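Batch manifest line 392
LIGAND: pyridoxal-5'-phosphate
JOB: complex structure
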Amino acid sequence: MTRASDDDLRLRLSTKAVHAGQAPEETTGAIMTPIFQTSTYVQPGLGRHKGFEYARTRNPTRDALERNVAALEGGPHGFAFASGLAATDTVLKLLSAGDHVICGENVYGGTHRLMTHVFERLGLSFTFVDTRDPAAVAAAVISATRMIFVETPSNPMMRLTDLAAVGRIAAQHELLFVVDNTFATPVFQRPLELGANISLHSTTKYLNGHSDMVGGVVVTTRDDLAERLAFLQNAAGAVPGPFDCWLALRGTKTLAVRMRQHDASGRCLAEWLRHHPAVERVYYPGLPDHPQYELACRQMSGFGGMISLDVGSPERARVVAESTRIFALAESLGGVESLIGHPASMTHASVPKAMREAMGLTDGLVRLSVGIEDVEDLQADLDQALKKAAAR
Ligand SMILES: *Cc1c(COP(=O)(O)O)cnc(C)c1O
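JOB STATUS: finished
ARTIFACT:
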């Protein structure tokens, strides 16, 4: 656990991205935080040390990343993990057997799998609800409920949860309110300012932004939760190595400028796709015909580069996904390069088919992670792939 300083918390967002949590290195003045590739630290005497004893507990490169992301989310407490799922795993370990969690029904497939295949066996219970409707969240509260876990915008259906409204329900029933902020990033959405107690990320995605590491981070405003999370981070030990922390830290420096480009190109392509004859439906919170467009404008300051589109059949989805040349067919999202994926067979294969279909996640759905390439090239690439599919 590392705490962001009050000075860092007061900066504006782009300045935080570049500077927060990173002082010049003390011996040389190196402006970039070094990679402290070490497992242990020499102690000058018994019971005396410089705050660093063993690298599972603390590492200076990790400290810098934790302070940086904590400042971006409006922390102050940050915790880095070996993956986004390790971050979620640790947050769920705040609970005890017998506790009940209300979770969005359209969360990341791996989150759903972790809850139902691991934590249910250990005695937690989960109710998956459509968190677009705050009344449905309130109706799911039972005496054993301890936590509400949501992802907004959701993956891949781009459904939104009204964070302020759900935050009020959580406060009323004294429940922990956890938000997976991976899609929007702190550039466009700050859950901790809207009533969440914990904001978490897969840093693998936009925060790193260069598709060259896997990691996660948890940020909280509450000192009591921070103390317990620090204990769990050290006790369970799913920590990232210093080099991965350094890569993520290098990524967050450009987060604000990258997000502006993802957003500009995302809006442009979503609007164009909406009128494309080979596309049946486009899911993007920045389109005025998105059913929650008004909420999107209220709680987000940008819409980002994630777009889902329904091309009508699994066969056409296959042709589109296999025909793009710039959009690479791969899992993951949030990198500078554009990716295309087929959620039903890739990222969401672990979600039961009946549940997928019920939420509109059909076999004809294709998901785009719009990168920062020239948008004209991206459009031409999608156009040729869609035309090929339409000819089937
Ligand atoms: C990828 C992802 C995760 C899981 O993160 P990993 O780093 O892959 O473990 C969790 N939530 C969302 C929204 C994601 O996109």
